[in-house]
Predict the structure.
Amino acid sequence: MNALNKDFKKLAKLIEKDLKDKVNKDYHRLNFHLMPPIGWLNDPNGLCEFNGEYYIFYQYSPFDANGGAKFWGLYKTKDFINWEDNGAKVFSDQPYDCHGAYSGSTLVYNGKMNIFYTGNVKNIGDYDYINSGREHNTILIVSEDGKNFDNKKLLMKNSDYPNNLTCHVRDPKVFIENDKFYMVQGARDKEDIGQVILFESDDLVNWKFINTIKSEDKFGYMWECPDLINLDNKTILIVSPQGVEKEGIKYNNIYQTGYYFIEGDYKSSNYKLSDFEEIDRGFDFYAPQTFKDSKGRTILIGWMGLPDIEGLYSNPTVEFNWQHALTIPRELNIRNNKLIQTPIDELKELRKTKKEFEVKNSLVDEAFDTFEVEVDFKNSSDFKLVIKEGVTLEYLKNEKLFNLSFNEIGFGRDIRSCKLENLNNLRIFVDTSSIEIFINDGEEVFTSRFYPTEDKKGINIEGENLKVRIYELASFNIKGE
Ligand code: FRU
């Protein structure tokens, strides 16, 4: 342990203690979502199951609610309801990661946790930080016990990546296939084309570049946080592209997140990417990561937020010294050639009081502070649901359009939409300042933050022949380490 590491550990704990009361005074602290204890959170990192516990790391800047020095924070759980908050665990304490322990992944192998991440370095000088002045190093931490994360090894630096690339190569996701290890990294080439680069290894330490994976036509200038998975016998590349132009109701956020099906052999030039499909249609979703658990589920968690939203919309939580959260965990499956997201089953344990209604034309109900609503539609027809007097969900049957919109409690968030052939059912999770909407058993999902005052309550429904169930939801039980 070096001196910087020792002091970072101490300082992070001190400032957490110092600011915790202020943070916890915020009514908008979430009840059943993982948030930074204080300060800033972005991408989920290193998701895995290790010795019977789920490890949810995340990009964490305790010193600044608008993002600063990036560390890895950690939450652990056995059941996704009871959590242990481990605070900051991986620090940017080496010359090769001194401007941030950026995003990465974990591979549990032979009883050890192998963490791969990007060490971010910004040199001082007159640089554009794209083609020069920036180091993106690939770093390995081997943890024997899942508690100690100080054993770092520098694996690759910019000169080890293909030389058609800019300095932007980051977010290693590692997986194993037929006894070989593979790593995908997100990259931007010198022609500003977003892409993924693929490496292969026999020992997790020595990596060989073997292929570039990109779309036939350019789709953005940089691809962040790639994740290559096998699901129901299909190969899927999940990725977060930057620099994609808005097209009608598509790609309306500053940066996008979606997936491609890969046909053919992605380890050779003999592959083809399908069309890009957005994973989430809401205002606050980016840089998700998946992992496979011992029950065989592929679970996805996203960052319930986006970078660079200044001037577009905002999060008033910053006044209370914290910002952003992770989404609820979602199980992934494929149905009708589409990626389907279902909230993991464990979340049903949060359900408390239940109310049930048969709705002929309309329903007004107080609901609860934080709740889940399920709506079943007998026949797909026009529908409108207003939550807490400011969040409107609407289905326009003739236009086959689903809209999510906000009044002022959206803090600048206006409207997001998707095309929808039929509306059969809805499952909606409403936390104190977030909403996650699962349409038609997870065929489409909208994730967003919003900031109602405490007096804003209830739901207001207009629609024909509906069955509505509302469950009050309990909070996560989060204890310190
Ligand atoms: C995505 C991202 C990653 C990077 C990390 C830094 O949100 O920009 O590409 O590793 O955040 O916090």
